[in-house]
Amino acid sequence: MSGVAQARSSGRMQRLWCVLRDVAARPSGAVGLSLVGFHILLAALGPWLVPYDTGAMSSGEMLETPSMAHWMGTDHLGRDIASRVMLGGREALIVTGLATPLAMLWGGFTGLALGLAGGRIDEAMMRIVDAFLSLPGILILLVLVMTFGTSNAVLVPTLGFLFGIPIIRVARAATHEVIARDFVAAARARGHGAMTIIAVELLPNVRDTLMVEGAMRWSWMLLAFSSLSFLGFGVAPPTPDWGLMIADGRIYMSLALWGVLGPVIALSSLIVGINLAADALAKSLGIDRARKAVI
Amino acid sequence: MLTLLLRRLVLGAITVVIVSLLIFAGVEALPGDACTAFLEREAQGALLEKCRVDLGLDRSAFTRYFEWAGGAVRGDFGMSAGGTERIATLVTDRLKNSALLAACALAVGVPLAILLGVITGLWRDRPVDLILSTSAILAMTIPEFVSATVLILIFSVWLRWIPGIVVAPADYPISAFFPEIILPIIVLSMVMTAHILRMVRSSVIEVMASDFVQMATLKGVPYWQVVFRHALPSALLPAINVVALTVAWLLGGVVVIEVVFNYPGMGRMMIDAISDRDLPVVQAITLIVAVTYVGVNLTADILTMLLNPRLRTYHMRRR
Amino acid sequence: MGASPLIQIKGLSVGFTGLSGRTLPVLHDVDLSVARGQSVGLVGESGSGKSTLALAAMGYLKSGLRLLNGTVRFDGHDMFDQRRTGLEAIRGGQLGLVPQNAGQSLTPTIRIGKQMAEALRLHSPLPRADHRARALELLEQVRLPDPEAIYRRYAHELSGGQQQRVAIAMALAGDPDALLLDEPTTGLDVTTQAHILDLLRDLAQARHMAMLYVSHDLGVIARTCDRVMVMYAGEVVLEGGTRDVLRAPVHPYARGLLASIPKLADTHLPVALEGRPPAPGEGRTGCAFAPRCALASDECRAAPVAMQTAARGMQARCLHHERVAALPLGGTGAAPVHTVRDGPPALALEDLAVCYARPGFWDKLTGAAPPVATVQGITTQIARGETLGLVGESGSGKSTILKAIAGLLAPLAGTIALDGNTPLPPLVAARRPAQLRRVQLIFQNPDDSLNPRHSVAQILAQPLKLYHGLGGPALRARQEALLEQVRLGAHYLDRLPRQLSGGEKQRVAIARAFAADPDIVLCDEVTSALDVSVQAAVLELLNDLKAAAAATYVFVSHDLAVVHALADRVAVLYQGRLCEIGPTAAVYGRPSHPYTEVLLGAVLEPDPDAAPRLLTNDAADLAPPATGCPFQRRCPRHMGAVCDTEVPPPRSGPDGHVIYCHLPAEALEADMAPGGTAS
Questions:
Q1: What is the assigned CATH class of domain C390-398+427-679?
Q2: Closest by alpha carbon to B257, among A49, C584, A223?
Q3: Does pTM surpass 0.80?
Q4: Does A195 contact C at CB distance below 8 Å?
Q5: B167: domain CATH number?
Q6: Which residues, including other chains, have CB under 8 Å from residue C674's CB and lie 6 or more apart?
Q7: What is the pLDDT of residue C443?
Q8: Above 80 in pLDDT, residue A226?
Q9: Hey, what domains does chain A have and what are their CATH numbers?
Q10: Mean pLDDT score of chain B, rounded to an integer?
């Protein structure tokens, strides 16, 4: 048994490794993975790398152009833009890094269960899912943030919940494709329970779709998080955040170009990187992503 | 066929009812109400009681839901929290402006997206496709406020061609929003073109690889006739649903873009209402947006059903 | 023959670029010629390159394939050196194609009439005003009922047989000199197939067309072609007159293929071909068949074998064709195991009825008539160790009955009992594990019934853990023993389904069913997704396992010869109702139900002298009739009102042979006169 189990788990690792290598072998995948990796590294090591304290104001050095000392210049409060850009993605990455798996877990499981259950329960639950999807997501987010504040303890579950809802639909649709196949009928005929069928028969076949979907939802979640900051409802001011920096920098755009351009490049490169990687992942796994993209 | 139409309509109606319940319950669940928001610090004791009685907040949630929902059906959303204006009047102007923006973006985006989608699908993996598909990923993923900011930087700050901000208030006539509206249209159509393009592309690829397209070719049908007569009618059907989602998104208020360009549409109204904690307005907007979403998707489903001979006859037979 | 050939292919090689960057050939140096008025059959199993060859004759290669060498000429035109407009003029004009799957090959968004008109517009000299009349005339010619109505329909509104006829009519629109037919009857019911082939034969004779007929089915070729080419691994290995190739093939592969086809007259199982064909593009030095050939010598393996002229003008790619010719034909397969034992029946069905359609809310509201049950009135007992065959065309409800027995579908009425008296709860959820273990189901398509993400070990472990609680070394030992039983080695344990061939996959599926130690094994078309030579091996395996495990089989198949080879008793179903049930010999002999007679008459055998007898039209019924005999609408012996209103009574013969028909036994004894109307 142990031999079989070992062979199995090593097979799984091997598959993951193979997929990763295949993703990296595609031009878009290589670019995407390195961008994402770079940003994660930067967020992790940023605090030890930044040349200046991100909060340190200097009234004498407001809105300076790039120089050797401040190579992206300074903002309207005299803070070093480069340092702030380097740390501006930390909050976003932490929050979305926690909320994305949360969304995938709850959305994925609910979708699988509904897909398997079918019938009246499925029908009724999908009406509620439809109702949630019809609500403007950003508005729900804004209302909750306004009421409960912007701490991570609020943002993570909120984002996780909201972004899990479209995943329910995706997981359910993917389950429907699998469930009509005979190996599910075979498992049912053998008398396996619903949980076993979900875990053993369905999940391995839906996992790829969920992974790609999760990667994409991650980028959308980052977008939502930054939009929130940009609108002034997100990260509280002294903390550096790209969305917030772009909102602030816009006013002084003609004076301190890098105050906008820095965070713009940083945020865009991260999101584009995630999407390129997700696209390559979808191709490597043989999933057509575009057909299911907009839900 | 008729049965199916009816079924879809009933399902849509059920969704709308659930939405209204969700919205009402959601707002109920929030701490504080219109009175606490209006009275702010003085919200206590007799004053609060009186305000609640005045606004009818002392009645059961059940009664208030039916009153609210009943009003909404008649197009009456009550007064805003400040008690000064009718929500319906406020919303009408904003909705008109959002519709204007949406219509312009659709007029640019949809034909462009379909054209480019067909091109990239037919010339799959050739340079045209690689360039357009990559641009589509960029256009789709770069945050709207980023592209908006960059466009303002280029066209308003450096080139000074188009003003970067709309100054006209909500109730001005349509003409007042030109030419400022051009930049938001560009940003919006970029995003939606990218989405629709990718869908159309993969649909075209799928259909071009189908047995009936191969058969048409082997029947000696010239290439472009194969594309236009045999392939595209099937390939473009799924686009209807994506376009519908885009329409819903556009009408639902593109919050960020409206804020960036100071455009007085539904999105800005939403932000203002939230900032002012004007819950009746938030409730009203959410309901309108949600109903629009349901309605547009319903229309798309019915349209697909009417245009796809397979679905059409299948359901006729079922009857 | 005489005149210069219409289609002439010389030295054609086609290949694709593999992942490694090497060019892997799919077709090797193929020569082919078809003259006006001649019909040539191209036979081979999946992967032999026969369809690629047929499409190449039109100058068309599927995406990814490249022309490596050789020429394809049609009426003197080089098809791979044509401008687009030249090809467009020939394709669909002089050279028509009848595709494999007409349902998917007709454009779904254009009405049949418009598609016909398009073909005429492109290829017919007729003035536009006459197109409609001509299209209707063509639809009439392919024996479609009510051409006016078909003209206005969409493809999906037609039955499979009608779609195929429309595809033929469309190919005729260009008034072709030659017709390519790519598996034109695959997937159709036997009666429909027989009708379509009949039509094609008549058309070829009337129009003096050249026909190139691609099929995996030697029976189809025997019925339609003058000459046959047998393909193996991208090469033509045998070519000759149909009669000669079928009667005395001089290539060992052709011989093996012929022996692996089950025939109605056989009393033994078909003989399996050992080994498996090379994958497309697999490297080889000598004869491609050498690894599977009993006669292979070093000479065969050393260098590619050229075509040799053999007896009766046949061309064979075999150095030992003379020795092959001397071998006895057919060979004898294993005898079917008959192990019927006394005691209570293993399985008893009592008045079983199943209905897919449930009246919806809307139907209740409008008071619509309740839907007619899909399967009704199935009563039979299956003895321990017996094999009951269920036969019938698509829609006969045979798979539905299996699903109901397996507990996947709730019956509308009736009972299913084990051991003669223990009623089984209707659905899986209510059955006890011990009951579940005793009934196992094997599905048609192993691609669908094996989870693509599970290794063979995981697949086999599921029933072993669930029913027997095995783990550790005991589990491993049992897994290996099971693989051994289905003749696969222990090294298969770590493989995924996609790393197995079709036959190997089905063996794994069979091993999974037997892992439960079942008493009753339900086989749902278990060989119909497989090539014939593989089918023979799987039938042999099922036969051996039955002897070893003393199991009871319920064996569903549309193939009457397969059922004949394996079953002790046979039930013939039409529209979910029993027509006839009894011992195999009795059902396949006389007297018989009119439907059984129709079915048996339509069977195609790989025999140049056997012609199917067409006794009725092939218009499939969409739903069973509400009253009377299920076969009333198509029955060539329809007696009148009694058939339409009253359920036919069971007429019992000896040995539990029962025929459900209003006709008296004497009438059922006599042969029917052929000549049923083609719809």
A1: alpha beta
A2: A223
A3: yes
A4: no
A5: 1.10.3720.10
A6: C601, C613, C614, C615
A7: 93
A8: yes
A9: 30-277 (1.10.3720.10)
A10: 83
